[in-house]
């Protein structure tokens, strides 16, 4: 079996669901259930003995040691993190505690577990660390996309914490030989994404007639990847990646934010007619806002034969439809905590 951390979050839940749709190998899912973790994402697995959910923190070494001893996973896929840049600007502490200290604690316990394995079990063990393109910093308009050897230049507390965790993972391979792999992926979108991130926020706000807040001039560029393509890339890295290597994952889909917002408005207009474009509102920019990210995903294609399946056009259509069909899910995540965050954050952006 495999151990997934953060499997109740956006990418983690998609990963667990896709894994079990394609394989009977059980998954232990360790998740703290922060505001971003939601067991409703995994409701379709209720009663499925292949999914073992453990409520816990990656900082809790005793708990992790016990579950490693009990279940003997052949791999750890580490997704658990604080993931929202805007939150990291307001309250960086949780990012340091989970993304840096938590990754260190998990790595350390994984190392002792791996060291005690013998023969083939030790050889086959893998620790896959799921990271982000934001560790590379910001690109100028015409600069070439990030390759795996691009220098690390993180600019937000979030990306700095992810960069630190990547370096720890690298060190555990280099110093102790732990068979780690690092993936650095671009912006994901798809089902179950918490509506604090650009794409679901725009869909959810538009459907309730609220302003669509575009930071600064809206010309910042992100490289979008449909979440299921990210999950298939992680599976491929686990299956065939070389320990100690890093793989960049991206969708070859660079788009300015304002174009994304217009595409969402057009799609909503087609599927649920109303004038959504009039809701677009330019607001105060995010401090330290990175201008452009772009991933050069040639290494994973060349070495592991992975390429995304969805284009942006097919992926965004599926995503908008999913949010239209799952308004109960949206209503449920609109808890008191979420509402408080949205109100205070966008009050500041109103400037
Ligand atoms: P998310 O915020 O939706 O989910 C994170 C999950 O981790 C939640 O279920 C949460 O409860 C859990 N978690 C948080 N702290 C924990 C702790 N201390 N112990 C155990 N569980 C904890 O995040 P996401 O967007 O699904 O991102 C998953 C991973 O992928 C993160 O490591 C993120 O850095 C990385 N990533 C995300 C993107 C993206 O576009 N979303 C792109 C590249 C990489
Ligand atoms: O690049 C990968 C990263 O992508 C992941 O590592 C992060 O976990 C994930 O959150 C994401 O970070 P971003 O900061 O790029 O994503 P976000 O959805 O917050 O914002 C996308 C762009 O849209 C960014 O340029 C800021 C802008 N934006 C965002 C929000 C929430 C707006 O203009 N208005 C908004 O209200």
CATH topology of the domain at 2-189 and 226-252 and 288-310: Rossmann fold
What is the helix tally?
13
Helicity level: 40-55%
Main sheet: strands, sense, barrel: 7 strands, parallel
Cα separation of the termini: 50 Å
Q: C-alpha Rg, in Å?
A: 20 Å
As laid out across the biggest beta sheet, the strand order is 3-2-1-4-5-6-10
Overall strand count: 12
Given as residue ranges, the uncertain stretches (5+ residues, pLDDT < 50) are none
Summed over residues and divided by their number, the pLDDT gives a mean of 96
Organism: Nitrosomonas communis
Enzyme class: lyase
GO molecular function, one term: dTDP-glucose 4,6-dehydratase activity
Domain NAD(P)-binding: 3-319
Give the structure's gist in a few sentences:
With 351 residues, the chain is of the alpha/beta class. It has 13 helices and twelve strands. The chain is globular.
